[in-house]
Each structure stands twice: as C-alpha cells, then as structure tokens.
C-alpha cells in the first residue's frame, strides 16, 4: 500500500491490493483477483473479495470523496467509482464503463413514516440509477471486471433488473450480453430494457433458480463470464450504495437499514460495506439490517425462524416478481451479515406490499413492488415492537416506479390478484375516470 501526499491532499495513488477468499472460514482458500471464478474450487462455497493489509485514513478519504463530487471526470462523477479505494481494481480503471450510476438521493417521506409507525423515515432511492435499479451499482463493477479479463460474452439469469442493467452496461462497454429470464415472469419494463439495450434475450420455460443452474453449466461450457450476484465484483459495486449513504449523512449511521431480500446479494453487499467501513474506522456504530421477503418466496425468513437446515422454496410465488426466488444463492453470506449487524428478517403479504407501494407513491416517490416490501416490513416491525417510533430508519427502494406499470394499473383499478387468484383490495386505489369532452360536465364534477 502506498500513501503519497501532495501538499495537503492525498492523491489517487493509494492501492489496497485485493484477493478472492473462500467465504467458508474453515476452508479459507485464496485466489488472485483476476481468477474468473465465483465459487471456491476446493469446497464450492461462494468467494468474497478481501483487501490485503488494508488500511485507509478515514479523515483524508472522507474529504477526498466529498471533493470528487465537484469533479467532471467520469470516475469521480460515478457514485460507485468515486469510492474506488474500496473497490478491487488495484488503481487500474481502464476497463471501467460508467453511465454515472449511483448518486441516488435520500428522500424524506412523512406520510410513509406515519404509515410505518415511525416519527421519520428516509428512503434511499436506488431507482434513480441509469437503468432504474440498484443493480447498476454492481453492474458497472462486474462489467469492468469482465473487460479487465478480456471476456467478450457475458450472461445472467434475472428476474428483470439484473438483465436490464447488464444489457445496458455490457452494450455500452462493447461486450456481447446474453440474458436468461423466466418466460412470462418478469415485468414488461424490464424485458423492454433488455431488448432495447441489445441483449440476446432467451426466455426459458423454468423459474429463476432452475435457470441459474442451467446458466452456470452453459457459462462453463461456452466460456461465458457470469454477471449474477454470485460474481463477487457485483457485490463490491453494490457496497458503494452504503458508502454513499453514509457520505450523504456525514458518516452518521442510522439505527436501521431496511431492504427487500431475493437472492440476498444486496444483503451480502450491505453487510460487507458496513463491516469494511467499521474496520477502516469510517463509522463507529453498526446499523441493524432488516431484510424483508415476500410471504410466498421467503426461504431465508423461514430459515431464520428455526436455524435448522436451509430449505429452499421449490415453487416461489409473489407478484413482486423481482424477489420471486426460492433458492437464494447468497444466503450463507446474508446470514453472516444479519448476525454481524444484529439484524432481523421479516416477511410480508401481497396485500401489505401492494398497500405500502401505493403509500410510497402518494409520497410523490414511487417504486416497484419488491421495493415496497420495505415499508410493509417496517409497519410490521414497529407493530411488533422490534423497531421503535423514534428509531432512525433508512429504507432502500431498489427499483423505479415505471418498471412494472401493469401492477400499478391493476391495483388502482381493483383488478390486481395475488398468485392464488385472490383479489387484492385497492385500499389506496386511485381510479382513472372517463369523462365526456364537455366543459360543464367536468366543471360540475370537479366542484363536487
Ligand atoms: N429489489 C429489486 C427491485 C430487485 O430487482 C431485486 C433482485 C431485489 C430487490 C432483491 O435483491 O436478490 O440482492 O436480494 N433482482 C434480481 C434480478 C434477482 O435478477 O434482477 P437480492
């Protein structure tokens, strides 16, 4: 590691060398950072990036990262690469493609706070990203690694947002994206993005978990680089939404960070970011993570109830298609992060997700269904006394409101049915009204 000072500033030559380490402590196998692997070749467990003898001076870097916000350079403008000292690229950024991801706002939402039983509630809205979801934070990093390794073809299986993001970033980088999606099971906005961004798009007649197994075989056979969240570089990029959040709060951690859980990659990334920020001395307190799953796709919640054997959900169901995952690959990492942060895992019903989503909409903020699981979860956790009214809570909205317009229209017009075919009540419904082209009729109507 090299510290080089230039007057009062530490310039950009700090290098924290990184390696890939098996997440299973008993194994602990280590590999060079440029090895194109996702699981430990010895024991099969997922890999994690670790910095070797890492040390960062918090005061200096807090200042430098803040100063970079006024810079016009591509790396500094990115809300991911601005924090590049925490990313494993050994100070080499030639392979980076940025669409100016990150830079997502913290938004106060008094109505949502009241609904959730809190005095205050802040949303970190990752749906403000270039392709409308938090996946962009991780994808810029994953695609940079693909380019660094000289890989041309990249692939992922996705419930929609990963594919939209991968299609955009890999096309922007001149790579060849192949997207695998569960046939008929992803929101139209997301499918449209994959097509528009030029990904070869394969709709497989199977669910997410089955397709992931298939894609892993194909990747091995055809030498395709995989960009699912089993890829440790995706996790590294996703860490930065937490770093940015702390920077935006002048490094005051909240009491809670609430997020939806599907494949649990984001939970792993958030926990890793918090551990690193604590270990490097950037924050003194660990926020608690609260992971919220949809009732019909809640294998991690069920596991946390018993702590017995991890059982997948063979036929996961939820209208929040982004988190319709029954066999989350990152659960061992997520378990570690929940333990380290003294976190909790909750599950919420389809009705609860739909209502919470409409409330977030009425705040003028809006999000896609999976994201609304956060507010539904907060309401449940405050009711149960796990979260208290005066707690400082940040809920992460993972996707943009326009990702799934079909869901919105059905909800507001009272046509939304849960996966069992039961009608969801439009408790916060807002029906469009058809009127004649007549000024008097409309005046009378609006005056009523
Ligand atoms: N919210 C949204 C909007 C998502 O798209 C996802 C995951 C999650 C939450 C859950 O995050 O998997 O890290 O626990 N979407 C993936 C995809 C699986 O393929 O787009 P997770």
Quick rundown:
The chain is an alpha/beta fold. The chain has a 6-stranded mixed beta sheet, with helices on both faces. Strands 10-9-8-11 form a 4-stranded parallel beta sheet, sandwiched between helices. Strands 4-3-5 form a 3-stranded antiparallel beta sheet.
Features:
448 residues
Biggest sheet layout = 6 strands, mixed
- Annotated CATH architecture of the domain at 106-131 and 234-412: 3-Layer(aba) Sandwich
- Kindly report the spatial arrangement of strands forming the biggest sheet: 6-7-15-12-13-14
- The percent range for strand residues is 5-15%
- Which residues form runs of ≥5 with pLDDT under 50? 1-13
CATH top level class name of the domain at 106-131 and 234-412:
Alpha Beta
Helix share, percent:
25-40%
Mean pLDDT metric: 95
Report the structural category: alpha/beta
């Amino acid at each position: 590691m090299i510290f080089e000072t230039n007057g009062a500033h530490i310039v950009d030559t700090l290098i924290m060398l990184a390696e890939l380490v098996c997440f299973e402590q008993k194994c602990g196998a280590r590999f060079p950072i440029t090895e194109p692997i996702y699981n430990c070749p010895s024991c099969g467990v997922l890999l994690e990036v670790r910095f070797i003898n890492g040390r960062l001076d918090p005061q200096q870097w807090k200042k430098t990262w803040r100063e970079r916000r006024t810079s016009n350079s591509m790396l500094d403008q990115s809300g991911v690469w601005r924090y590049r000292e925490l990313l494993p690229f050994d100070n080499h950024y030639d392979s980076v493609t940025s669409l100016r991801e990150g830079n997502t706002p913290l938004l106060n939402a008094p109505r949502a706070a009241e609904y959730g039983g809190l005095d205050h509630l802040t949303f970190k809205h990752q749906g403000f990203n270039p392709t409308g979801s938090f996946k962009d934070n991780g994808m810029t990093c994953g695609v940079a690694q693909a380019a660094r390794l000289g890989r041309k073809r990249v692939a992922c299986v996705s419930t929609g947002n990963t594919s939209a993001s991968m299609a955009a970033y890999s096309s922007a980088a001149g790579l060849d994206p192949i997207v695998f999606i569960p046939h008929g099971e992803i929101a139209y906005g997301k499918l449209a993005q994959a097509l528009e961004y030029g990904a070869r798009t394969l709709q497989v007649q199977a669910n997410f978990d089955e397709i992931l197994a298939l894609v892993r075989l194909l990747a091995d056979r055809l030498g395709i680089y995989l960009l699912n969240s089993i890829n440790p570089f995706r996790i590294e990029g996703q860490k930065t939404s937490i770093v940015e959040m702390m920077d935006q709060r002048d490094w005051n951690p909240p009491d809670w960070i609430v997020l939806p859980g599907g494949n649990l990659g984001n939970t792993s990334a958030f926990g890793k970011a918090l551990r690193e920020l604590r270990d490097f001395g950037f924050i003194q307190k660990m926020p608690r993570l609260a992971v919220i799953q949809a009732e019909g796709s809640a294998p991690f919640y069920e596991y946390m109830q018993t702590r017995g054997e991890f059982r997948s959900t063979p036929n996961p169901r939820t209208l929040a298609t982004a988190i319709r995952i029954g066999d989350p690959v990152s659960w061992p990492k997520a378990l570690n992060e929940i333990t380290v942060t003294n976190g909790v895992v909750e599950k919420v019903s389809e009705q609860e997700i739909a209502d919470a989503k409409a409330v977030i909409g009425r705040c003028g903020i809006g999000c896609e269904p999976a994201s609304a699981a956060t507010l539904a979860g907060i309401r449940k956790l405050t009711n149960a006394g796990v979260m208290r009214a005066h707690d400082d809570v940040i809920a992460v909205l993972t996707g943009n409101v326009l990702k799934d317009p079909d869901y919105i229209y059905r909800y507001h017009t009272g046509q939304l049915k849960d996966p069992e075919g039961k009608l969801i009540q439009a408790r916060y419904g807002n029906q469009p009204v058809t009127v004649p082209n007549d000024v008097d009729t409309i005046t009378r109507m609006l005056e009523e």
